[in-house]
Amino acid sequence: MTAQSFAHSRALAAKLRERLGPFSPDVLLILGSGLGFLAGEAKDAVSIPYAELPGFPTSTAPGHEGRLVFGRMAGRQVMVMQGRFHGYEGYDTDTLALPVYIAAALGARTLLVTNAAGAVNTAWAPGDVMLITDHIKLFGDSPLRGPNPPGHDRFPDMTFCYTPSLFETARRAAQKLSIPLREGVYMVFPGPQYETPAEIRAARALGADAVGMSTVPEVIAARHAGMDVLGFSLLSNMAAGVLPQKLTEREVLDTAAAARPVFSRLVIACLEGLGAGFVP
After folding, report:
1. Tens of pLDDT, residues 176-210
2. Which DSSP letter does residue 277 get?
C-alpha cells in the first residue's frame, strides 16, 4: 500500500478515537451482502456513517448499509463494518484494505469476516454456512502492492491465512448450536458479473468450494497487520452452471434473509468463544 494510504488509515483512526473516547475494539467484524443485520446485535452502539469520515469511501452494493458500528457484542468490544467495499465498485486494493488498517490502529487483534458466496461444491446447498479454511486469489492486485509500511513484514506468510486455532472456536460454536458447518476453500473473482459455468468448472478443478467477489483483500491486509482471522461464507446460491437457471442478486439477498437466525447465532457464539479463551 502507499505511504499516503497508510497515513490516511492512521489519521482516520485518530479521528475515531476522538469520537469513541476510551473504547477500543477487540474484533473487527466485516459483514457481507444481506448480512448487515448482525450490526443490530451491538449493545451501547455508536454508529458512524462512512460519509462522516474524511476520505472514507462509500459502499454502493445492495444490502450494504455503509456505516461503522462500535459497541459490545457477546462480551467483546467490536468494530462492525456494516457494508464493505468491492473492487468492482471502482476501488483499488488500498481502499479495500483501509478499514482493516484502521481497526488494527484502534487495537483490534481479530478479524471476523463474512460474505455471501456461490456454492461450487455440488454436495452443498443454498443456506449452508461454510467455514473458510483457505482461499484462492488469481486475479487483481494485492493490497500490499507498493511501499511497505514501517513495522510490517514485506513478505507476510499466508500458510495460516485463516487462523487454524480459530477453526476449533467455530466448530465448537456450531456443535453447541447444532448447526451443520461446511468447511472449504473460497475463491475470489473480480465481478461484478457472475462467473460463467466454464469459470466455475475451473474453480472446482482448482479446489474451490465457493466463489465470491470480496473478503480476500481484507484477509490479506489483516494478516499483514498481525491480526488473527476467522471467516464464514453464507452459501446464497449454487454457482453458475450447477443448476439450469440464471443467477440473480435477489436470490442472494433472499437467502441471507432466510438464514438470519442461524447465521446470527453462529457469529455470536463464535464471539463468545473468543472471550472464553480460544484465541491463540
Report:
1. 999 999 999 999 999 899 999 999 999 999 999 99
2. I
The x, y and z cell numbers of residue 226, run together, are: 498481525
Question: What pLDDT score was predicted for residue 2?
Answer: 66
Q: How far apart are CA 223 and CA 235, in angstroms?
A: 24
Q: Pick from 130, 2, 23, 131: which is nearest to 68 by CA?
A: 23
Please tell me the predicted confidence (pLDDT) of residue 63: 54
First to last CA, the chain: 27
Taking the C-alpha atoms of residue 161 and residue 280, their distance in angstroms, rounded to an integer, is 14
Correct CATH for 3-278 of 3.60.20.30, 3.30.2320.30, 3.10.50.30, 3.40.50.1580: 3.40.50.1580
> What is the reported pTM?
0.91
The answer to whether 188 and 65 have CB atoms below 8 angstroms apart is no
| Angle (CA) 189 219 92, round 5° | 60
Q: How far are the Cα atoms of 36, 116, 147, 160, 280 from residue 164, in angstroms, in the given order?
A: 26, 22, 29, 7, 9
Chain centroid to CA 23:
22
The residue to which cell 490502529 is assigned = 105
With vertex at residue 219, the alpha carbon angle to CA 91 and CA 102, rounded to the nearest 5 degrees, is: 70
DSSP-derived pairing of the beta strands 76-82 and 27-31: parallel
Contact 187, 208 (CB under 8 A): yes
